Amino acid sequence: MDADLDTVFAALADPTRRTILTMLLEDDMAVTDVAEPFEMSLAAISKHLTVLTRAGLISQERRGRVKWCKLQPDALKNASVWMQGFGQFEPVNLDAFERFLQQELSEAPYSET
Amino acid sequence: MDADLDTVFAALADPTRRTILTMLLEDDMAVTDVAEPFEMSLAAISKHLTVLTRAGLISQERRGRVKWCKLQPDALKNASVWMQGFGQFEPVNLDAFERFLQQELSEAPYSET
DNA sequence: CGCATATTCAACCGATTGGTTGACGATTGC
DNA sequence: GCAATCGTCAACCAATCGGTTGAATATGCG
Predict the structure, then answer these.
(1) Do A5 and B21 touch (CB under 8 A)?
(2) Which of B99, B78, B107 is nearest to A109 (CA)?
(3) What is the CATH number of domain B3-71?
(4) pLDDT tens track for B63-105
(5) Interface of B with A in 2-41 (CB under 8 A)
(6) Checking CA distances to A64, which of A17, A70, B67, B97 falls within 20 to 30 Å?
C-alpha cells in the first residue's frame, strides 16, 4: 500500500544510514567524504546512499566528478505524520527531544555493545 | 545506544505490522483476531507480533489461552523525536541538537571503543 | 477424560540485505 | 596523453526476513 513509508522506515532502520543523515545535517557532502569516517568500503557507503536516495531522504547531484549529497528532511514528514496518528505525544515536542538528549548523553559513549 | 531505533524503525518498515498497529489503536486484540483480516497464516502474524513486541511497540499479556495484544505507543517517542530533530534544525535549540549530533557521530566506528 | 481452541515452535524456502572485492567509466589536472 | 581521483557496477557471500506447513503445547469446555 504505502510503499513510501516502507522505504523511509527501512532506510532509517540502519545505524550507518542514520549517522549519514546526521552528518548531512551539518552540510552537503561528497560521497567520498561521507564514507571517510566509516570502517567500510566506499562501495558499501555508495549503496547506503542509494537506499537513502530512493527513500527520498537525500538527493544526489553530480558536479564534475564529485557527487554531492544533500539532506531532504521533508521526506520524513509522512513518516512523522503517520507516527503522530498514534497521538500519545505532542506533534512537535521539544521537551521530549531534550529528555531524549539527556538520556542519550547520559549513556557511556564507549560502552561495549 | 540506539539499537532501540534500529528495531523500532525496522518494525515499522513492514505494512502488515503498521496495519496491526493501527488495528490496535481501536482496542486490545487477541492474536487470532489480529490475524483474521490478513491473507496469511496465523504463524506469520504471530511472528509479526513478536517483532512488534521486541521493538516495544506492543505488549502481550496471556489471560487463559488467549494472548492479548496492547499498543505501547510510547515506544514511538524516541523514533518520533529523532525524526523531528531533522524537521526543525533552525530553531533556538540548535545547541541541544548539536550535542545530539556529537553523540551520534561518536558512535561511528572510527572512535573504536 | 477427550476434544476443540489459541498460540507457538521447528524446519524449510526464496528473496532481500549489508557487506566484500575487483574491474570499469568519467572527470580532472599535470 | 596519462595518471590519479570519484563513484558505480557486477559478482559473490553469509545472514536475515517474511512467508509456508506440520507438529507441539497449553488451556477451556462439555
Answers:
(1) no
(2) B107
(3) 1.10.10.10
(4) 999 999 999 988 888 888 888 878 664 443 445 544 544 444 4
(5) 2-3, 5-6, 9-10, 12-15, 18, 21-22, 25
(6) A17
Contact between B86 and A21 using a beta-carbon 8 Å cutoff: yes
Q: What is the pLDDT of residues A55-110, one digit of tens each?
A: 999 999 999 999 999 999 888 888 888 887 776 544 445 455 445 434 433 333 32
* Beta strands, E only, chain A: 29-30, 58-63, 66-71
Question: What DSSP character marks residue B67?
Answer: E
Q: Is the pLDDT of residue A113 over 70?
A: no
Determine whether A12 is exposed, middle or buried from the number of CB atoms within 10 Å of its CB (0-12, 13-18, 19+): buried
Q: How far is A28 from chain B (nearest CA, A)?
A: 14
Residue written as cell 557511556?
A108
Contact assessment for residue B77 and residue A96, using Cβ atoms and an 8 Å cutoff: yes
**Portions of chain B given CATH number 1.10.10.10:** 3-71
Q: Is A100 on the interface with B (CB under 8 A)?
A: yes
